[in-house]
Specification:
Rossmann fold, 6-stranded parallel β-sheet, 9 helices, 14 strands, globular, binds NADP nicotinamide-adenine-dinucleotide phosphate
Length: about 350
């Protein structure tokens, strides 16, 4: 076990969209990093990144890179997590994985610390971080569940291009630049259709039953994190031309009726959630204002016309609370509980 001031940290995917934010969040939160080991592919090996004011060379991710490492954040590809996370655990490290590889494994805790930090106690070396869209959704659902129970959820997501990493951001940029210049936009390679000035109801990959794997992740992960294996979660995922910040329009059915006022109160009292909801001034949460923040912002809380269900709108920074910040919070909780 490492002492609280003595953690050797490796970041696999340190040069990617999530990895870069992760490094900044470790610095901001003054996570007690004794030594940082940034890892990536041969494409980035030898480059330097800056951490805590020092230049550190990026190395190739391989099993031997985990010798002497206490904690490894995986923010690369699912395939790499599958191959290398067990190698890191074998060498005594605890892994926090950002990919979907281990999330639904019964032996692997899937954790949003404000909701289910206790699940960390049973970890066997690997802990999963949820999908970036799931995290914002469950943060908005948990306070309502605690106040009035949860029967069913219907959600349509509006997902930023950075949810597909640096290539997603670059594809939007290139298409917008071409549109502005009046030139033909480059063919899409990351998204199913052109994303500039568009909305694309397709995130991830199609499954045989007509759903997208992203939609299935939201259903399965919400059930696992909330510990409600039977709750109905109906999902439509849409990619929108926004750099950072995932949103969801959510219809929530509670076990007992909950007024919008009581829901706002429960949401605002929950750590990590802030209510921004002022119809008189038109002040509601937007992705542009959540970028760079760790809060999940919730607004448009209102009663459904035809039922006791509640509508709400939630937004979160997919690279921070949806990915890096949540992972660092997991690491902090592990240290607090002396589980690393
Ligand atoms: N973006 C989000 O909002 C978000 C949210 C939650 C979870 N995630 C998950 O987080 C992970 C990283 O996503 P991202 O958005 O940061 O992707 P990204 O911007 O494409 O970055 C990918 C990173 O992985 C590295 N990498 C790729 N293949 C590798 C290999 N074979 N060996 C070693 N390193 C390799 C890349 O290194 P090089 O520089 O060498 O190419 C880069 O550092 C993914 O599993 C993703 O599903 C992303």
């Amino acid at each position: 076990m490492s002492s609280a001031k003595n953690v050797v940290v490796a970041v696999v995917g340190a040069t990617g969209a999530v990895g870069e934010v992760l490094l900044r969040v470790l610095e901001e939160r003054q996570f007690p990093v004794r030594q940082l080991v940034p890892l990536a592919s041969t494409r980035s090996a030898g480059k330097t990144i800056t951490f805590a004011g020092e230049a550190v060379e990026v190395q190739v991710a391989c099993p031997e890179a985990f010798e002497g490492v206490d904690l490894v954040f995986f923010a690369a590809t699912g395939g790499l997590s599958k191959e290398l996370a067990p190698e890191a655990v074998k060498r005594g490290a605890v892994v926090i994985d950002k990919s979907s590889t281990w999330r639904m494994d019964e032996q692997v805790p899937l954790v949003v610390p404000e909701i289910n930090a206790d699940a960390l106690e049973k970890h066997r070396g690997i802990i999963s971080n949820p999908n970036c869209t799931t995290t914002g959704l469950v943060m908005a659902l948990e306070p309502i569940r605690r106040a009035a129970g949860l029967k069913s959820v219907v959600v349509t997501t509006f997902q930023a291009v950075s949810g597909s990493g640096t290539p997603g951001i670059e594809e939007l940029d290139a298409q917008v630049k071409a549109k502005v210049a009046g030139e033909p936009a480059p063919e899409p390679t990351v998204f199913a259709s052109p994303i500039a000035y568009n909305a694309v109801p397709f995130c991830g990959a199609a499954m045989d039953d007509g759903y997208l794997d992203e939609e299935r992740k939201l259903l399965d992960e919400t059930r696992k994190i909330l510990g409600l294996p039977k709750v109905d979660v109906s999902v439509t995922c849409v990619r929108v031309p926004i750099p950072v910040g995932h949103s969801g329009a959510v219809l929530v059915e509670t076990e007992t009726p909950l007024s919008p006022e009581a829901a706002r109160e429960a949401l605002d009292a929950f750590p990590g959630v802030t209510v921004v909801d002022d119809p008189a001034t038109g002040k509601f949460p937007t992705p542009a204002e959540v970028e760079g923040s760790d809060e999940v912002l919730v607004g448009r809380v209102r009663k459904d016309y035809g039922s006791d269900k509640l509508w709400l709108w939630e937004v979160s920074d997919n690279l921070r609370k949806g990915a890096a910040t949540n992972a660092v919070q997991i690491a902090e909780a592990l240290l607090e509980r002396e589980l690393v």
